[in-house]
Batch of 2 targets.
Target 1
Amino acid sequence: MSSTTVNLIYLIAGILFILGIKGLTKPATAVRGNMFSAIGMLLAVTVTLLDSQIVNFAYILAGVLIGGIVGAVMALRIQMTSMPQMVALLNGFGGGASLTIALAEYFSVLGVDATSLSELLVPVVLGSGAFGIAEEGTVALTSIGLTVLIGAVTLIGSLVAFAKLQGLIKKSYGLPGGPIGNGLLLLSALVALGCLISNPGQAVTILTLVAFALLLGLFLVLPIGGADMPVVIALLNSYSGLAAALAGFILGNTVLIVAGSLVGTSGLILTKIMCVAMNRSLANVLFGKMAAGGESVDADEIYAGKVTSAQPDEVAVMLEMAKRVVIVPGYGMAMAQAQHAVRELADAMDSRGIEVEYGIHPVAGRMPGHMNVLLAEAEVPYDKLVEMDRINPTFEDTDVVIVIGANDVTNPMARESEGSPIYGMPILNVDKAKHVVVIKRSLSPGFAGLPNPLFAMDHTLMVYGDGKKAVIEMTTALNQV
Amino acid sequence: MEIFILLLALFVLSLFLGVELIVKVPPTLHTPLMSGTNAVSGITLVGALLAAGSDSSPMLVNFLGFLAVTFATINVVGGYLVTNRMLAMFKRK
């Protein structure tokens, strides 16, 4: 097949990817969009397989078989609550693919057939212009180096993110000096990249680059945890796209560049949305601790004698008289696997003519849109899931708000207490409702480590215990009223 | 060098197109958007196939290509399947 035909088919694939993302702008067209995108992928891969350069199918077959089985098993078995882990892994594999492609491209030009590391490190005398003549060579080597750098950071960073989400790594470790340590690692990687460009025959330069990039990825994500994960996952998503686009520059492949830059911008925009929703800069999320509060807040002082607790059946009586109820879910709902129980409670209210909506904070959960997917799994219609800006004005007309497993995103200190670490963060103004019910295990603070004055307000009732159990008891009681 | 400039132009224009497209995706679909773009970034499979299937190059290149094919295929298959699974749940009953 001529390269003209191949490139035209790549163009069609690119258009299908664009239509695929366009389909995602509405839930009704999203499935079709995903299908378009998959057809584009099938076209691009098929036309590449027909390329005459490909003569050796053994490695391809092995890779496609292993990858296909692993991918399918992951996709079909993963629980919706674990979707952040799945996306973290996919980000990592995306980075890994770009990394290994760049390395393959480099070693194919070098032409060493090494069976051991020491053979690999023997410098190779390259003819001038092995990677391209004059500045073309520099461009090619820079593309290879940057792909290796970003690909390796994405691979390791994502694996660490996965381990943290899965609870395999519980503590946070940082380099001494925080951003300075990471900065030095980045600088070292860039120096190795410079050496690679000036001395392309020395494989040791690219291996050093890989090593520094892996360390950088490790120490970039190790210090970050908990509620900051949505930002990290979105950022690594962006990196995986960027690495793919850079690999496109290495191979001179247009569809890689188009697809990679779409993924790159997607991740970047999600990163920005997450940062805005926490009122923090990206640098602050990556390198800063939550700013130590100017005035220390004493939890006992806020809670002492003011917290009212209630039993689920008391809440049911309250719900029975309500006209409008808003449910505010957080990561705790995912932890308790309470999404189905929550929907059953909503159904019970609905059958009594009570209006029920869900208020979703952008950073609720561990990744963008986490709560929406969980509630969709429980068959909650998506038009009942209302974003922060649209739900906030309705709280004053809401009789009862049920907060389940959310904490910091409802903390009025973000609105009122200047000097508080979360001051300025947009929150769900649940305290404006007539009654607030908070389902929580204890009064322990959320990720920000702050007490929540909401819990001590006169119109707030605390229901202690497991989220799922408490919600089921409320439903049972409501059905008996 | 002319080719590089053309590719660069394609890259920059795609970035702008990406911004226009992505800002229109509603928050409720942000998780499927991420897994869907994971699948799209599996387009590196195209480059991986060329590395894994070339014959003139040393074994090391084929092996790196094999790794790349494996990683990229996980993204393509896993990404599209899990996105489809999620999006099916968003369909109105």
Target 2
Amino acid sequence: MNQEVIDYRELAEKLIQKCKNKGADEAEVLIETGRNLNLEVRNGEIETVEESSSRGVGLRVFWGGRMAFSHCNDFSNNALDNTVAAAMDYARTTTPDENNVLPKDEGATPVDGLHDPEIAQTSMEKKIELAGLVEKLAMKDPRITKSAGARYGEGESETIIANSNGFFKGYKASACFYGVSVVAEKGEQKSSGGEYCQRRFFNDLETAEKIAEKAAMDAYEMLDSRMVETQKASVIFAPDVAPAILGGILGAINGERVLQGASFLRNSLDKTIASELLTIIDDGTKPRGVASKPFDGEGVPTQKRVIIDEGVLKGFMYNTIVAKRAGVKSTGNASRSGYSSLPGIGPHNFYVAAGKSDPEEIVRATKKGLYLKGVTGYGINPVTGNFSGGASGFWIENGKFAFPVKGLTVAGRAAEMLNGIDMVGSDLDLNKSFTAPTFRIDLMQIGGK
Amino acid sequence: MRLTSDFIGDIPRRKFLQMSMKGGIALAATPALMSQLMSCRGTQDISEDIKMDSQLLDKTIRRALAKGGEFADIYVENRVSREILMEESKFKSAVFGINQGAGVRVISGDKTGFAYTDAINENNLLRAAEVASYAATGSKTTPPVNIHEQERASFISVQLPLEGIADERRLEVMRRANQAALDYDPKIKMASISYYDEIRGRTVANSEGLLVSDALPLLFFIVQALGVGEKARHLSRERLSRHSGFEMFDDVTPEDVARRAAREAIAMLEAKDAPAGIMDIVMQNGWGGVLVHEAVGHPLEADNIAKKIGAFTGKLGKKVASDVFTMVDDGSLPNMRGTTNFDDEGTQMKRNVLIKDGVLQKYMTDILSAKQINQERTGNGRRESYRHLPIPRMTNTFIDQGKDDPEDIVASTKDGLYVQSLSGGSVNPITGIFNFTCREAYLIENGKKTTPVKGATLIGSCLDIISKTDAVGNDLAFGPGICGKGQECEVSAGQPTVRIKGINVGGSQARRRS
């Protein structure tokens, strides 16, 4: 839905001035506007159409070393005045801290391909058709008995950050995705599967055939699954389960958690923490990357950083305040989940670098083990390094998939798991933002019968 | 330095907060509509204004049904929130938020059209109605009934209204919790105290003639404590949350919450690796109910039942659990975190017995799924905000009180795992496969709770565990949580102490077999 056009530079400058007039030493304005479309198709019929646009403003104020934040989604003068007053009022409640500062202007990293103007130009019919097609193709396999629905979604947003150090910067971004979830049934057995594809550009979306095939396979290949005995064996992580490993590492390299001692990697900087086959990268600059951006949630330019280099931990992640406290420079990792949130610390495109092994070769080289296709739970605990999850996938015997397994658990400690990585695949898909190629851990505890 | 201020801008604070509750800053933009809608409960002298606003709501609903459709509703929301974080004994940040908007929905058969707007005025409401109406294009219109205000019983009582609480009192409960956690044991090196409160004003109007509104207060208080031992570290968590006034902290003190968190952090420093494999578990009363919330509750939400893909499809009236298993969802329990006066579609909250003595009684519905499966509306139509469609969600969900003495349950378990608390879990509602992560657990050896063990995953399938529940205690208790299902909502989960025979535990240690 249309909203009246606003000059955001003028608005941002006005808000910063209002904060200063109320006594703020420094102030920051974050403005976000966006629109969304969501379509759901089930059994060939359009089931849900959701359309919306929204916008909001977040104000961060600093007063005598104290920091407070307020947000609102009403752009009338009166509402904005009250939002300024609320932030200033709340600044009186927090504790002064010399580290409470805003970044200086260091420009922005040029990143190509964040916004696709074509998405909005593409007709609604085409988008509905795409969701309908992917569902139809996924249902083609006779083992697939029901559709849990196909979905198409898109969003466009504009993010603007200005602060009293004199900068004003913004960018437009887009994203679109589609995919389908299906159910395979055999007697009393039920197995669900799904596949989705997300891109910055509409024309970069994968074909419906490819998505449908993967969704159907994801469901039917888990029929007739079994349990195995409790034992130690090799575990191969498929690319889709990479977050199980990456999430805990991410929590443990959060600069603030490190300072607080709440990280299993707190004493590991420049030390070997993993097999030399493991390299992890955080990249905010990749063209068309789904998590790329020219600057972070405070306006600090993004970069491409090696976090773990051939097993050696090279750095933690920081936003401006935590970096000042640690005596380092912000790494451009201030993360925000919208105009209503304070800057935290988070990644951009965060991934395990590709290795040399053919993924099929990794399976062939495994005498006995688990090919992990699905893992549930919280992954590695960032404080203790403890890992435990529910597991499903395939049991491998003599280098071949023997049968599907589910209802198992896998567990271990981060140090042993990371050092136990003995093969890394070449199959990295950088269209995803939180991902890894196939990799193998030599030995893990598997819980079963 | 004055920590509290009586003023926000030029408006006296108390007045400002009163207005916030009624529609807050929306007053500035939309003087008539929001303020009156949010305050229409219990006041008689503004009936003329309500009538005027009702006319706009009627007009919006008529526009929504202009192209076809059998049902339309409009949901108007205004949320004023405060969030303060204390870490390392410092008040690190304070956040004040005001969000408002309205969502318009049209249902035609199985089709739903939905649109929302942030700015609440006639133009935007009618435009949202227009966008939502496309989904129903060409279908037959069920003529809307003009709305009239309806009364709903209230399950939320307030003695100390949040809008009358000075910020200094919020800071004070946080300081007290921080101190109590640090004082508990020198091994507690850090506490993190998170305070959140909000007042969510809601108005729901629909084409069946319904008009209801209220303002829900919510408090959420979280204490985390970092225990540091010679070899181990543990970050614990304890939460307290209610739909109530500030008197919540008289009932359960900040010190109580902090000491519980600190106790866990210290106890778990001695934890050994958990065993792996299938074992009997005893789950302590309280938040452990999240197990049935996930494993049984989600699969009983009617949206997947209507799609005929849910794990409990076709099982109504059938025996699905052991005789000792009765499960309830009750959104009318006074002041609890999952309680509201009516759901986000305006349906009255009530006690719904889902499984009685092992037999499946009903599914949890919203308006759409109730129609699709031809069942009553159970008051489970909930939404995170005006930006989300209502979907079937749980409220306060629990295994009902049993007859067993909790101590006997442990004593009669030869070997197993005693799960004192869970972090949380998830379920695939189609296959019913669930997982949970233990926060605090102990081995049971020869009928006694012994060594603490590290956070292990528990996994299994929903139909399996409810038939394997063989002992249910007489000590029903609840815990607060956040439930995510594409959108978040506040819930409670509860249970008495229960025993489940044979569940797969994901420890990192091969199990000693006796």
